[in-house]
Amino acid sequence: MAVGIFDSGLGGLTVLDAVTKRLPEVPFVYFGDNAHAPYGVRTADDIFNLTCAATERLWEEGCDLVILACNTASAAALKRMQETWVPPEKRVLGVFVPLIEALTERQWGDNSPPREVAVKHVALFATPATVASRAFQRELAYRAIGVDVEAQPCGGVVDAIEQGDEILAEALVRSHVEALKRRMPHPEAAILGCTHYPLMDKVFQEALGQGVKVYSQANLVAESLGDYLTRRPQFRGLGTQSKFLTTGDPRSVSDRATQFLRKRVVFEAA
After folding, report:
1. Taking a C-beta distance cutoff of 8 angstroms, is the pair 85, 68 a contact?
2. Which residues are catalytic?
3. Fewer beta carbons within 10 Å, N or C terminal of the chain?
4. CATH fold group of domain 3-94+218-269
């Protein structure tokens, strides 16, 4: 009954930590494609092929449901995967859905026409590939009208976090927030559109100001997954054991993941 969690690197561990706390009885298999990270600077075809390969590996572990805990993969590959590649007995879900549900205050199953919502000015911080895909704006437009989204590609932030350079990551975050605020001086809400960014959520909040509501994904995804498995328990899969897999060097990735989560994590070769 294992569920797969995929990310290009370590960012998805923020989601894994939240879903593990929300669903302690469910084993999770985490797959980090560290050898090919970051995805945010890759082409859409490259992201699609790498994400499909990782998903197949998680299926081998008995994970009939795979969560793409990677905004870049969710933005650049998920729709194509669902329409052309995922077999009927499997499910692959992304991380935009819970964010948009929270932002628009409507459930994903609500197929009524788009309507006005309380928030009018939204800042989106994401990788260059996620920003280029415009997937967030497209999904939001299905459900809400009159929302101005200003997107800021946050080059370098994921690399700095993956390398454990918090000083550089913090400086880059502040620089990207300043760049966005030159174009949108008074955002009402900010979306941290990368699963690495919750580790910098306090820096984002400080740079944006306390009047801006910052939406971070991990807890929203955890609640959404709990609801999904309650409604569709058949997708808990056949796996029985939690584990951590990586395409990178297991020892190095384990050390960085342990630093990342502040608890011991042991990866094995995928």
Report:
1. no
2. 70, 194
3. N
4. Rossmann fold (3.40.50)
How does 198-234 read in b/e, with b if 16+ C-beta sit within 10 Å?
bbbbebbbebbeeebbbbbbbbbbbbbbeebbeeeee
Q: What is the CA radius of gyration of the chain?
A: 18
For the domain made up of 97-216, give the CATH fold.
Rossmann fold (3.40.50)
pLDDT band at 109 (very low <50, low <70, confident <90, very high): low
Q: Taking the mean position of all CA atoms in its chain, how far away is CA 43?
A: 18
* Rounded average pLDDT over 48-63: 97
Global pTM value: 0.90
Residues 165-216: tens digit of each pLDDT: 999 999 999 999 999 999 999 999 999 999 999 889 999 999 999 999 999 8
Domain boundaries, the chain: 3-94+218-269, 97-216
Are 3-94+218-269 and 97-216 in the same CATH fold?
A: yes
Distance (Å, whole) CA 166 – CA 61:
34
The 3-state DSSP class for residue 235 equals helix
DSSP letters, 190-206, are: EEE-STTGGGGHHHHHH
